[in-house]
TrEMBL record:
<feature type="domain" description="FAD-dependent oxidoreductase 2 FAD-binding">
    <location>
        <begin position="36"/>
        <end position="472"/>
    </location>
</feature>
<keyword id="KW-0274">FAD</keyword>
<keyword id="KW-0249">Electron transport</keyword>
<keyword id="KW-0472">Membrane</keyword>
<dbReference type="InterPro" id="IPR015939">
    <property type="entry name" value="Fum_Rdtase/Succ_DH_flav-like_C"/>
</dbReference>
<comment type="similarity">
    <text>Belongs to the FAD-dependent oxidoreductase 2 family. FRD/SDH subfamily.</text>
</comment>
<dbReference type="GO" id="GO:0050660">
    <property type="term" value="F:flavin adenine dinucleotide binding"/>
</dbReference>
<dbReference type="GO" id="GO:0008177">
    <property type="term" value="F:succinate dehydrogenase (quinone) activity"/>
</dbReference>
<dbReference type="Pfam" id="PF02910">
    <property type="entry name" value="Succ_DH_flav_C"/>
</dbReference>
<dbReference type="InterPro" id="IPR037099">
    <property type="entry name" value="Fum_R/Succ_DH_flav-like_C_sf"/>
</dbReference>
<dbReference type="InterPro" id="IPR011280">
    <property type="entry name" value="Succ_DH/Fum_Rdt_flav_su"/>
</dbReference>
<keyword id="KW-0285">Flavoprotein</keyword>
<keyword id="KW-1003">Cell membrane</keyword>
<dbReference type="GO" id="GO:0009055">
    <property type="term" value="F:electron transfer activity"/>
</dbReference>
<keyword id="KW-0560">Oxidoreductase</keyword>
<dbReference type="InterPro" id="IPR030664">
    <property type="entry name" value="SdhA/FrdA/AprA"/>
</dbReference>
<dbReference type="Pfam" id="PF00890">
    <property type="entry name" value="FAD_binding_2"/>
</dbReference>
Length: 670
């Protein structure tokens, strides 16, 4: 059994990372070309890690299932990236970013990791500016900042509503430089199928060429998993259709513990579901909550009239609108953390005030009229326009909003055919980010020696809830500034190992297992498509392991997913051939993993008898409907050990969370 040792360095919190770096083993520059490293995933975490490791002189093999690293799902992160620069001079600091992240995660994250994240955040901005990332700037040329949920300072750097895309292009340009030098060997349209272990260490992967269908062996001295999160277990989510858990789940089945799988973030500002045939949801950036006010009608009859199309939302008077976040959480208002905002929207819709005309009556308004008029008046004063007309004020305010969020408004209008400058946006919570993932120690290594996990694929620095604009921060921190140090400490013992051969019995056995499973899928005489099972799984997950959970519902979910799993292996039909492109075969492998993960998520949620962050149990709620934590019994990371096909047999290991530098108390945003 692997020992659960977090390897957190001793000493004062602010000195842990500095002292740890100073005492690590190193690989000398002249020895780095003797070392091979595999990086699976080329989003912000994987792309930045591959570029940095290759720049240092290691031989890097990078894998992505997309046709280019530029298509990694990191491009979908729109709103911004946090850093403790205090450019706004409003009281920000490394400690405040650390505190906000711990509190926002509902006190379920490691102190040492989160403080390190806050420390290196400022370096990320400098690195990205040097790469040419076009961050928004103020009139004087200084980088601009906006606010995000869960904070009372402006620390979020942004590039309009394309921050993730611009940051990824920066990492990709750094990768391209190394690809040109031959230090990165890029494997596009390749998917990791399994991890290969030799003498108890991660020594390579089995990959499938998604164009030719060929099963390939790739060896290395260490393997880095940077394959993102598992939100698509719910079928409908904000994730790209191809996002999956397979790389992380494969290493879990080889001995890497999977931590806090029930910690899933529901994002409050997504376009509501519009029909049963929908296969993906669209996220509207949280940055919009800076300028938009969230409301529903105060009167049930007004909500009903809006749903039926008899009443336009802009015609409802101010006094007849319920700005429920401002009412319930006056200190933070519309900028409460995502889990709080999501539950509040659900509560209003469950009470009958939802405004979307579908069977669920789900949806609330995100309204920019107040901000447009406010900024318009400011602009008119600035331009010395005396007694401006309402139209002049509106036009000036609209121009300001266009400069900040124009592409997001454009995207919304193309999807919904509503002009959000005139008619408030309709939004509703949806599955977004996953805080759970592969357990890693302070060095970002899993319980498998030589297998490192970074970015959203690991169980993260976010606790039970991620604050907005922290995913990009963590991905780039891990890839640029943490992993390159910690992986060198591990690899220093491998400079005399030599190249890892791929003709060993371990590689042969792993390849045969994959080929046998490919053959099974293509010869199984089933009657239902892969999507049929994925949708059934998603329905169970959303209804019983979603925003609000009950012990009865979770127990039912475990049994129902077991039935779907059994049916899947008997009745799935995968058309096509093995030798060539076969997207249904790709999905079959991924959904098989989702079915197992879904069970573990429900099991983890049932075991955690408290409410914290994105994990909300109705049997552990305050009279006001807020989350009720149990710090005495559940202040730990739940790390699950795989014990075979029966997911109910997984063994729970606990990493107790110790808070020496922060007071653990009930979260309040009121």
């Amino acid at each position: 059994m692997s020992k659960l040792d977090s390897k957190i360095p001793a000493g004062p919190l602010a000195d842990k990372w500095k002292n740890h770096k100073a005492h690590m083993n190193l690989v000398a520059p002249n020895n780095r070309d003797k070392i091979d490293i595999i990086v699976v995933g080329t989003g912000l975490a994987g792309g930045s890690a591959a570029a940095t490791l290759a720049e240092q002189g290691y031989n890097v093999k990078a894998f992505c299932y997309q046709d280019s690293p530029r298509r990694a799902h990191s491009i979908a992160a729109q709103g911004g990236i946090n850093a403790a620069k205090n450019y706004q001079n409003d009281g920000d600091s490394v400690y405040r970013l650390f505190y906000d992240t711990i509190k926002g995660g509902d006190y379920r994250a490691r102190e040492a990791n989160v403080h390190r994240l806050a420390e290196v955040s400022a370096n990320i901005i400098d690195q990205c500016v040097a790469q040419g990332v076009p961050f928004g700037r103020e009139y004087g040329g200084q980088l601009d900042n906006r606010s995000f949920g869960g904070t009372q300072v402006k620390r979020t750097f942004y590039a309009k509503g394309q921050t993730g895309q611009q940051l990824l292009l920066g990492a990709y340009s750094a990768m391209s430089r190394q690809i040109g030098k031959g230090r990165i060997k890029m494997y596009n349209r390749h998917e990791m199928m399994d991890l290969v272990m030799v003498d108890g260490k991660a020594r390579g992967i089995i990959a499938r060429n998604l164009v030719t269908g060929e099963i390939e062996r790739h060896s290395a001295h260490a393997v880095v998993i940077a394959s993102g999160g598992y939100g698509n277990v719910y079928f409908l989510s904000t994730n790209a259709m191809g996002s999956n858990v397979s790389a992380a789940w494969k290493i879990h089945k080889k001995g890497a513990y999977f931590a806090n799988p029930c910690f899933v973030q529901i994002h409050p500002t997504c376009i509501p579901v519009h029909g049963t045939q929908q296969s993906k949801l669209t996220l509207m950036s949280e940055s919009l909550r800076n300028s938009g006010r969230i409301w529903v009608p105060k009167k049930l009859e007004d909500a009903q009239a809006i749903r039926e199309g008899k009443l336009r939302p802009e015609s409802i008077k101010e006094e007849d609108r319920d700005y429920y976040l401002e009412r319930r959480y006056p200190a933070f208002g519309n900028l409460v953390p995502r889990d709080v905002a999501s539950r509040a929207a659900k509560e209003r819709c469950d009470a009958g005030f939802g405004i979307e005309n579908n069977d669920t009556k789900e949806g609330v308004f995100l309204d920019f009229s107040t901000e447009i008029m406010k900024k318009g008046r400011e602009a008119a004063t600035e331009k010395n326009i005396h007694n401006p007309s309402e139209k002049q004020i509106y036009d000036l305010g609209k121009k300001w909003v266009e400069e900040k969020y124009g592409n997001l408004f454009q995207m919304y209008e193309k999807i919904t055919a509503d002009d959000p400058y005139v008619t408030p946006m309709k939004i509703y919570p949806a599955v977004h980010y996953t805080m759970g993932g592969v357990w890693v120690d302070y060095n970002l290594m899993s319980t498998i020696p030589g297998c490192f996990v970074i970015g959203e694929a690991n169980f993260s620095d976010h606790g039970a809830n991620r604050l907005g604009a922290s995913a990009l921060m963590q991905g780039l921190a891990d890839g640029y500034f943490v992993l390159p140090y910690t992986i060198a400490d591990y690899l220093s013992a491998d400079i005399r190992t030599g190249q890892i051969p791929t003709n060993s019995s371990e590689f042969e056995a792993a390849e045969k297992e994959i080929k046998d499973k490919v053959n099974f899928f293509l010869t199984n005489k089933g009657t239902h498509s892969v999507d049929y099972f994925h949708k059934k799984l998603g329905n169970v997950m959303w209804n019983k392991v979603g925003m609000g959970r009950t012990p009865e519902g979770l127990a039912e979910a475990i049994k129902e997913i077991e039935e779907i799993r059994n049916d899947f292996w008997k009745n799935v039909k995968v058309p096509g051939e093995a030798d060539g492109m076969n997207t249904e075969l790709e999905k079959a492998f991924r959904v098989a993993d989702f079915l197992e993960l879904g069970q573990l998520m429900a099991k983890d949620a049932l075991e955690r008898k408290e409410s914290c962050g994105g994990h909300f149990r109705w049997d552990h709620a305050t009279p006001e409907g807020e989350a009720e934590r149990d710090d005495e019994n559940y202040k730990y990371v739940a790390a699950w050990e795989y014990k075979g096909d029966d997911i109910n047999a997984e063994v729970l290991h606990k990493e107790e969370l110790v808070y020496e530098n922060i007071e653990v108390k009930t979260r309040s945003y009121k």
